[in-house]
Write a structure and sequence with these properties.
The chain contains 3 helices and 6 strands, in the order αααββββββ. By secondary structure, it is an alpha+beta fold. The chain has one domain. Strand 3 and strand 4 form a beta hairpin. The chain is globular, with a radius of gyration of 24 Å.
Length: 241
Amino acid sequence: MKTNNHHARRGFTLVELLVVIAIIATLAGVGAPVIISQQKKGARTEAISNAKQIGMAMFNFDQDYGSYPSEATGTEVTKNNPDSGLTFGSTNSNDYFRQMIAAGYIDSEKPFYAKAPYTKKPDNAMTAAKALAAGEVGFAYVMASATEPLTSSGNSGRPLLVAAVYNGASDGTFDTDIYDKKAVVFRIDNSAAVETVRPSDKKVIVGGGKTLLQGGDKDSVWGTDITPVLKAPSKSTGATP
């Protein structure tokens, strides 16, 4: 008996395969930017949430110690919590944030994370040698000077925490890629928001064309008496966000 092969299944021709590959490539090209944009938005959302947790801890710290973390409060924290085993410095934001862990205002390293090329997910090891180690902090800490913190009684629009600074630097420039040309800014009034980063110089521009950290100006949130200093995070070499 003869077999009818008219409806037998045949394979794809080379042309058909090329068409399918082209369609898949097109869809991938269209979808990839959307996926990347959503990832960056997610990173911003996480940073905002973490900044608010740090901000609340800093508010409570200020209420009890009379100021935000500084070299002076570090001495007091050590005296009040001699068994913490943690040490503080004044070089980077990790040094200052560590005071809040030692004093019991935050019991985890996780809120200090913000995605950046120089950060890594905290391991939550709270021992003296490992608490907020290099790379486990993504936020820079804004101070009134190299040694003096901002005060909660100052202009409420002054930034207190920012992310993500460019290459972990303290010059007021921000990474334009991590948060899709945005910076995360937490202010003294406990508000956290995203601000636009100008690609040409990596600065955040606020009212009147002034930069976010441009002090010594009577028309800015800093007034004429403050030129803010940025304490950048301690970078982790070869960290993978």
